[in-house]
Amino acid sequence: MKIYSKIVKYGLYPFWAFKDKSNWFKYWKGLEESQWWSLEKINELQWQKMKNLLSHAYQNVVYYKNVFDKIGLKPEDVTSFEEWKKLPFLEKNDIRGNLEMLIAGNYKKEDLLKNGSGGSTGSPVMFYEDKNKTDWRLAAPLRHNRWCGWDIGERIGWIWGAPRDLVEFGNLKAKLRNLILDRLLIMNAYELKNEDMYRFAGKLKKYQPTMILAYANALYLFAKFLKDKEIEGIKPVGIIATGEVLYPERRELIESVFKCKVFNRYGSREVGLVASECLEHNGMHINAENVFVEFVKKDGTPAMHGEMGEIVVTDLCNYATPLIRYKIGDVGSSSGAICPCGRNLPLMEMVEGRTSDFIVTPENKFISGPGLSPLIMDLTGIKQVQFVQKEKGMVTIKTVKDISFQEEDAERLRSRLQKYTGKTMQIVFEFVDEIPKQQSGKCQLIVSEVSMKEIS
Q1: Other CB atoms closer than 10 Å to residue 135's CB: what's the count?
Q2: How far apart are CA 179 and CA 193, in angstroms?
Q3: pLDDT, tens digit (0-9, with 9 covering 90-100), for 31-42
Q4: Which of 61, 227, 265, 454 could lock 242 by a disulfide, CB 3.0 to 4.6 Å apart?
Q5: Which residues of 14-26 are buried (b: 16+ CB within 10 A; e: fewer)?
């Protein structure tokens, strides 16, 4: 580790946390210790956090008070997983229809951070989080990022596309923090053009980040671009791919281009980091101190180890909008294996997950799925959308209307999309009663039939 990186890790990072009256640095140090605990001790911690969360939700959240009373259960009655399973699943529509009732009454709303899911299913969800949750959200990635060979204070290349995240780097304080502390070199993956990738490749060669963190599909496109243009000299120690499905053949290409290992990661806007690969690449270790993950079959019963099931997550840290037994909309399986790395955090696999491809404009500009989702977040008259592209110059927006739908909602969405696709892209609306789900039971935000061969 270089001298400045040590100064950041041992001096500036803890000082900044102290200055902001934040616990994220303390939480990170705790996570570094707990990853080596026995599985029994980790389970005990989880169970205690689950009981505390249930007690808080019953006392302060109207929605959960009603849920408990309806099934005739009290938080103190939940003494084992058998009682836990009596709690109903929380669906996305439950959050949309009951958001105000899900906000804990012992918080002032103005003190909370409003957030929203990435909408990879074409149906985003809004929620709130308290400062303690934000601190945990910052702490967990520090631990998991270090598994790829990066350490606190070292440089990062970031290929990202969620506008709300990138906006945070726009003010002076954020720019100063990034310069001194986070040391991120950012490329906006919202729209990928050749000139952008040329520019970013040049910056990466000079910056030489220890780690690159990126959406899986954007990372693949960037790696393919580097290979096709015979650009070399970018030498990260490790790469983290997240946000989308990392297919084996794409992992292989990325690793061959950058000549280092790719570490798969799974998370969501609603709960933060869920699981990450370690150096063994033996599955993804669940961030068990922060989330409790279940895998359930279609009938709601638990899936066996290795058996595909819908992922159900309980956020153990967010008391502002408790998400208990939340059906996140992805499919995976628990491993049951013991990782040779020595960590006893449970292992999971993604069987089928988010597949956010890209919209391709007539000018060969790529627009990512995570980048599209904010366009639909506040369109109250639209219940769900899916972007379907069968040819490069045209996109069809399959749209499920809400009862409050007005024609202006569709035109507003068209206008927003055209800001990124340009006026030459033909945009067509197709109003449908429902959008077909995949075999996994979830809907896909982008369905693209445009072959890479068609993109010249």
Answers
A1: 20
A2: 26
A3: 999 999 999 999
A4: 265
A5: eebbeeeebbbbe
Which tokens sit at 30?
């705790």
Q: How far apart are CA 75 and CA 59, in angstroms?
A: 10
- Summary mean pLDDT of the chain: 87
- Answering whether pTM is above 0.85, one says no
Q: What ranges make up the beta strands (E) of 217-271?
A: 238-242, 261-268
φ, ψ of residue 92 in degrees (nearest 5): -60, -40
Residue type, 71: I
Q: Write out the two tokens for 225.
A: 């671009």
Domain 1-355 - what CATH class?
alpha beta
Q: What is the CATH number of domain 358-454?
A: 3.30.300.30
The per-residue pLDDT for range 203-258, each reduced to its tens digit, is: 999 999 999 999 887 898 899 899 989 999 999 999 999 887 787 888 999 999 99
CA–CA separation, 272 and 374 (whole Å): 17
Q: How does residue 440 score in pLDDT terms, banded at 50, 70 and 90?
A: very low
pLDDT tens figures, 136-146:
999 999 999 99
- Specify which residues 9 forms β-bridges with: none
List CB contacts of 252: < 8 A, sequence separation 6 or more: none
Q: CA end-to-end span of the chain, whole Å?
A: 42
Cα–Cα separations (whole angstroms), residue 32 to 27, 137, 331: 9, 15, 28
Contact (Cβ atoms closer than 8 angstroms) between residue 358 and residue 446? yes
> So where are the chain's domains?
1-355, 358-454
DSSP-derived 3-state class of residue 426: strand
Q: How many other C-beta atoms lie within 10 A of the C-beta of residue 66?
A: 12
Q: Which residue has the tokens 């780690």?
A: 211
Q: Look up residue 286 and give its two tokens.
A: 């669940």
Nearest C-alpha neighbor of 333 from the set 354, 314, 312: 312
Half-sphere exposure of 259 (CA within 13 A, CB side): 7
pLDDT of residue 355: 39
Phi, psi of 384 (to 5 degrees): -160, 150
